[in-house]
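User: structure tokens for 1-acyl-sn-glycerol-3-phosphate acyltransferase, please.
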Amino acid sequence: MKRFLKITRLVIILGWRIIAAYFGWVIRYSNHPEKYPLQLRYRKVHELLDAVGRAMRIDWRLYNAERLLNRQKGTLLVANHLSVCDIVALLYLCEEPISFVSKVEVRKMPFVGRCVRILDGVFLDRDDPRQAIKAFRTVEKRMAEEGLSYVIFAEGTRAKGEKEGAVLPFHPGSFKIAYRAKAPILLYAESGTQRILGKGNDRRHLVQMSFLPPMPYDEYKDLQTVDLAPIAHERVESEFDRLLLEDAEYYKAGMQKQRINDPGKEAHILRKAADEAR
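Assistant: Done. Predicted tokens:
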């Protein structure tokens, strides 16, 4: 019921804008992305999600996010996976084009699925090896030739039930893209995105994202994917555990009950600082 109320509130605040965008350009861009420049498509999605992010009353805590905003072209980003809002959060934060390797089920989601298609995202069916190979090759080509960065959630699924709140083992195959494209890898950990449309009735939602030092190709090229995956997992899990401690302190102090005055302020300050540093 509370999740329904959150969605209803979002529709009341931004319903007209979301509907206008959906029928004005989302359908058109997602059906024929090749007809429109990526910069244009990304800007439209980013501007819409900037408004959505503010309406969701997110209280951001960002750590070393300049590593994201000033990343090298053609970077593979690898993170833990909490909810579909993981995609929304990263697109809200990042002004330069970035795309996703998503599980095939995301394609069916009316809004998020179309946004992934608009941004040259690729849908992965792990139960179909041939399709997975084709999807990976598409990503490798775009990373190498176009310099587009991609995000992959290496767990392959969200932690649920008793495993919720843990970082599941990373699939070694998720890293093959980086090897073939000789791409830098940017690991990051995130927490709190599952609450954005969750069942709680908080006035603000703490979302934390922490970006670890980039791994250049030379750092991992001599490792096998089965060796790299647990190394990456340990780094992300360790940072995720730290974020959970921060998260617990935040909610213990009752911060979630306080009204947030300027949602997104920290993200906008960070973007400006990153632009000036370029």
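User: Anything notable?

Assistant: The longest strand covers residues 185-191.
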